[in-house]
Write a structure and sequence with these properties.
Blueprint (H helix, E strand, L loop, with lengths): L2 E5 L2 E4 L4 E8 L6 E8 L6 E6 L6 E3 L7 E6 L4 E6 L8 E9 L15 E2 L3 E6 L1
Length: 127
């Protein structure tokens, strides 16, 4: 069992930056693809970014490519999402997710491919 806890969300202005963190416990994430999803009010959850278990490859949704950067630190059992510059349309609850790399194919962009989820952290971007 892997427990994921997100942090780093907040209220910022358009053009600002934020760094989200995902702390994993219960098991090492060294064998897991890690990803970030988001869900805005009234909208379906959408894929944001993913990183392979080694950190060697990343994949981004088109809406965030070039602005967001996903990373991981297997020694610290953490994953991160750096967001810059933020836009009002980035407002959402951001979720961290994990899946064993042997149980899926790359890149895993569908939510139902993931086994473990965090509780989410709110990001609000004002104009």
């Amino acid at each position: 069992q892997v427990k994921l806890v997100e942090s780093g969300g907040g209220l910022v202005q358009a053009g600002d930056s934020l760094r989200l963190s995902c702390a994993a416990s219960g098991r090492t994430i060294v064998n897991y693809y890690m990803a970030w999803f988001r869900q805005a009010p009234g909208k379906e959850r959408e894929f944001v970014a993913a990183v392979t278990h080694t950190g060697g490859s990343t994949y981004y949704a088109g809406s965030v490519k070039g602005r967001f950067f996903i990373s991981r630190d297997n020694d610290k059992n953490t994953a991160h999402l750096e967001m810059n510059p933020l836009k009002p349309e980035d407002t959402a609850v951001y979720y961290c997710a994990a899946v064993d790399w042997l149980r899926t194919s790359w890149p895993p962009t569908a939510g139902d491919e993931y086994t473990y989820w965090g509780q989410g952290t709110q990001v609000t971007v004002s104009t």
